[in-house]
Amino acid sequence: MATPSHTSGQPGPLPAGASPAETWSEWSDRHARTFFIAPAVTLILIFAIFPTFYSIVFALSRVKFSPTGLQFRTVWFQNFQKQFAGNEQVHFLGRLENVSAFGWVVTIATAAAAGWWLYRSLRNGASWIGMIGRLISAAAALAITFLLGATLLSGNNWGTLMTTLFYVTVGCAIQFVIGTALAFLCSQPISGRSFFRVVFFIPLMITPLGVGYAFKMILDITKGPFQPFWNFIGLRDWAWSTDAWAARWFVVLGDSWQWIPFIFIIMLAALENVPRDHVEAAQVDGASSFQIFREVTWPQVVPVAATVILIRMIEAFKIVDLPNIMTSGGPGIATESMTLHSVFLWRANDMGNSAAVAYLLLILTVVVCSSFFNYVVLGQLRKAK
Amino acid sequence: MSAGGHKLETANRSLMERLFEPPAIGKMSPAARIVAYGLLLFWTAFVLFPIYWVVITAFKSAQIVNEGPYYIPFVDFTPTLDGWRAQFATDANCDLYAIGRQLVLFVYNSVAFILSPVVAIAPMEPQICKVFLAYTNSFVISIGSTVMCMTVGCMAAYALARIQYKPKFGNIVMFVALALLAILATTYAGLHWAVSAAVALALFFFLARAIGRHFTVQLGNNDILFWIISQRILPPIVVIIPVYMMFQAVGMVDTHLALIIVYAVANLPIVVWLMHDFFASLPIELEESAQLDGATRFGIFWDIVLPLTRPGLAAITLLTLILNWNEYIFAVFLSTAKAQTMPIMIAAKNAGERGILWWEMCAIIVVMIIPVIIMAIFLQRFIAKGVLLGAVKG
Question: Per-residue pLDDT tens for B85-144?
């Protein structure tokens, strides 16, 4: 992408080399098109693209520290193989033994649905690039369903991959529903809207670490503010940090507290952009507010909704601060996200595996987000036009 | 309940109708209103309670925290300054005035540090120095990277909105291939990184000159824009180890500049994406007439375009500032002592041998979130106007 810097013969305001004694400002103006874009492209090339490629070297090696620097021993895909089939499998994917009949049924049902979907799009004349994309999405969906069937539905513990997906899907769903509901309430004609708006916006701005500590304090069974409540329901001696599901849900709770405002502000702006006359016409016809929301407002904000979920998903895959602070990934590995998994491996000086997990996170994020973008966001945008 | 404006009808309506039917078009029925206010107030409590709890915990003593929950200062517990004293003063018996004075000095010095050639730093209690260092680092790094990110990002966004770029696909493939070769040469052949980078770059320019014009497939501005925005998908953890190695190679680990650059790059996609929308929506005639008058591109950008996008600029600057202020994962890897930021300082409090000292931690969190809440209230004004909505609409 560094090509703009040398596309010769470009149409500039002055023809190249027009005056023999060119001033500095003329010279810089002639190259303005390069100067405008070059810093951004260079920065991204050096600090995003280059490291992404360089991490492949780490992911394919066993890295050792030596007095002269790092020593790489290429082990090819051993690091990745370890995550999927080797001794890291339980940590990354979960325990995949004794898959229950129900797990198999769900997997086979998904396989059938994915196969039918591929067959249908092939019949409808999809391009070969489109087919490859669909194949990847279908394979990812199948793999994730199998993992779900083999871990959760068979009573096995799951690994960091499924935990990350849990945070992303459950977190995004909760945040979207509540955020949109609050935005809808705030778009109604009630007084004090600007107050609610400011208050609801605040959590987004608080450092995730602060949120983690605040929730850790509040959810404390013996010293937290809800101690009388825990006592009342007889959970005086319970510790949620030793219960895998409670810990996961509490991490989602903290994450939602922080991110609902994001959905809220964008959806509020979108709802307020819906033309007043459409809504008023429906009101004159005697529609209830719920009907108006479903029939008039919702179709107009769906494109924004799809986009905002996509943005939230992209950020949700990076979750690390909250589980790190609230539970340190525990109990066991129950609340460990993939980023945290990678950080822990890095702390143990296992750079090869750390990079491999990070790379798998990148692949997972790209596959899930681009599937969502292609099949949901683009579809909604096209429908809106 | 403002059902009073419709006296004609209310006389004939039963109580149920009055409760559940809106009094006028564009109004809510009393029952719906009660439910709406109930939900909104519940959510207000849910949002404010964690913040309230952090603030009151900052004024609790160790004993009060460990005994169990106490909810209201002055009513069921007596607020103390233990947490504040431990962080911000050496005198174990000092009063609110002394701590307040230290805090004012602390904020003053943080600002003075940025302007340090001009303003002298006031002397402070030694205790405060560690927090002060982190706070100042956070200030310097988030402001520095916001300035860098906005400058670079706005220029790129403007260029992509107004200038046609046609990079050739073949050149890009060539660049990537050469970069990979350089990486392999550095890692396996033991070449010095600077040598291989220089050779690869020179080779690229040479080859682009020599065979570049034979490539026919061209990309457009939208491809570049998508490429820049899509960098946001990249999880920080993927790039952080190589970035760490790169900074180590040039001896820049644990410096402010390293964090400034990395934060700026991390937020560049957001800035380019949102600003591109503002620049694209400006009328092009203004710029064209300025160009006819002989203004340069930089002149047009600086004197005409930027002032026109002031609301968007302000909103995105605040957003970037807040994101940088809260950044954690890059700082974990890239700062060890000198460049430690506030989030690292707070996270480090987790691992004490006496357990978490909640009262001290909360005092630091309060100090850290005060500037953010002030910024958030300013930012909220822009967001209320839907300033950031344009780009999301797609």
Answer: 777 776 666 677 777 777 787 777 777 776 665 666 666 666 666 777 888 888 889 999
User: What one-character DSSP code corresponds to residue A6?
Assistant: G
Q: What is the mean pLDDT of residues B132-161?
A: 90
Q: Which chain A residues contact residue B241 at CB under 8 A?
A: 51, 55, 58, 346, 351, 354-355, 358
Q: Residue A280 is nearest to which of B25, B51, B297, comparing CB atoms?
A: B25
* B175 near A CB under 8 A: yes
Residue B310 amino acid letter: R
User: B146, B139 in Cβ contact below 8 A?
Assistant: no
On whether the CB atoms of residues A262 and B90 are closer than 8 A, the answer is no
Going by pLDDT thresholds of 50, 70 and 90, the confidence category of residue B390 is low
Please tell me which residue of chain B has the smallest CA distance to A270: B389
Chain A residues within 8 A of B184 when measuring between CB atoms: 57
- Range of lowest pLDDT (A25-29, A316-320, B171-175): A25-29
pLDDT, tens digit, 9 for 90 and up, residues B327-382:
888 998 888 877 888 888 888 776 656 677 888 888 888 988 888 888 888 877 77
The answer to whether A202 touches A261, Cβ cutoff 8 Å, is yes
Beta-carbon separation of B47 and A324 below 8 A: no
Positive or negative torsion for Cα A329, A331, A333, A334: negative
Higher per-residue pLDDT: A153 or B355: A153
Residues A363-366: contacts with CB under 8 Å, at least 24 apart? A364/A140, A364/A161, A364/A164, A364/A165, A364/A317, A364/A338, A365/A314, A365/A317, A365/B233, A365/B235, A366/B233
Half-sphere exposure of B141 (CA within 13 A, CB side): 32
Enumerate residues 94 to 133 of chain B having a beta carbon within 8 A of any beta carbon in chain A.
Answer: none
Best interface-test mutation with B: which of A30, A207, A211 has the largest number of B CBs within 10 A? A207
Q: Do B212 and A3 touch (CB under 8 A)?
A: yes
DSSP state string for A145-205: HHHHHHTGGGT--B-HHHHHHHHHHHHHHHHHHHHHHHHHHHTSS-TTHHHHHHHHHGGGG
Instruction: Choose among B332, B362, B372: nearest Cβ to A206.
Output: B372
Q: Using a CB–CB cutoff of 8 Å, tell me whether B208 touches chain A.
A: yes
Q: Provide φ and ψ at A66, rounded to 5°.
A: -140, 165
Chain A residues inside the 8 Å CB shell of B326: 205-209
Helix, strand, coil abundance in chain A, percent, nearest 5: 70, 5, 25
Residues of B in contact with A269 (CB under 8 A): 383-384, 386, 388-389
What are the chain B neighbours of A361 within 8 Å (beta carbons)?
Answer: 235, 237-238
- Give me the sign of the Cα torsion angle B189, B194, B195, B196: positive
Which amino acid, residue B69? P
Q: Which residue of A has its CA nearest to B166?
A: A4
Residue B218: pLDDT over 70 = yes
Residue B69 to residue A223, Cβ atoms within 8 A: yes
Mean pLDDT of A136-149: 89
Sequence-distant (6+) residues with CB within 8 A of B380 are: A197, A198, A201
The pLDDT of residue A10 is: 44
Contacts of B36 in chain A (CB under 8 A): 185, 188, 190
Interface A-B, measured as beta-carbon pairs within 8 A, has a size of 320
